[in-house]
Specification:
197 residues; mainly alpha; 2 domains
Length: 197
């Protein structure tokens, strides 16, 4: 409404300036004076400049009023949105910083807990490895004892065999030393008798 009034005023002033100029021009022609015509032309030129200025100012005011409001409203909304986003990001950054500070405060406790846990795991692992080593040593000892027992058995058997062979050899030597042709005949005859009976 206000814009329409400004435009109407500008057009009215322009129209009035034009009408006034036309009337003065007619009056100057009737009087026929050259001096009056120059003064009239200067006055008319000044009125036209004012009319043009008012018309231009009115049009500029109309277009600025029409477009500036939405432009500045959109710009204000954009700035407000950016400020809200900045505030949100700042709050998130502060929350993250507080979380980091809290973690740093608990870092020594966590390190101590991890050390304790590591020491406990190391003790458990050492005990497990000691048990495993003892079990391996027991297996090796058992295997070695079996090998020794087996080797001892084999050695005893070889010794018995050797002893038996030696005893047989000695017995044979003794028998041969005592064997005479008469003893041989008596043995053969006893063998034959045993076969017959």
């Amino acid at each position: 409404m206000r814009r329409l009034a400004v435009v109407t005023l500008a057009l009215g002033l322009t129209f009035m300036g034009t009408v006034s100029w036309a009337q003065e021009h007619e009056a100057a022609e009737k009087k026929g004076g050259a001096e009056k015509e120059e003064s009239f032309a200067e006055k008319h030129e000044l009125e036209l400049k004012w009319a043009n200025f008012l018309l231009l100012a009115g049009l500029l005011g109309y277009f600025i009023g029409k477009n500036a409001g939405p432009f500045f409203a959109a710009r204000t909304a954009g700035i407000r949105k950016d400020m809200e986003e900045s505030l949100r990001q700042r709050e998130e950054a502060e929350a993250k910083a507080a979380d980091v500070d809290r973690r740093l405060a608990n870092l020594e406790k966590e390190i101590a807990a991890l050390r304790g846990q590591g020491e406990a795991e190391e003790k458990v692992e050492t005990a497990r490895m000691a048990q495993q080593t003892e079990a391996e040593i027991a297996k090796i000892q058992s295997h070695a004892e079996q090998e020794i027992a087996s080797a001892g058995k084999a050695a005893r058997m070889a010794l018995k065999r050797y002893s038996a062979e030696l005893a047989m050899g000695l017995a044979e030597q003794k028998v041969r030393a005592r064997m005479t042709p008469e003893t041989e005949d008596a043995l053969v005859q006893g063998f034959v008798r045993n076969l017959k009976s």
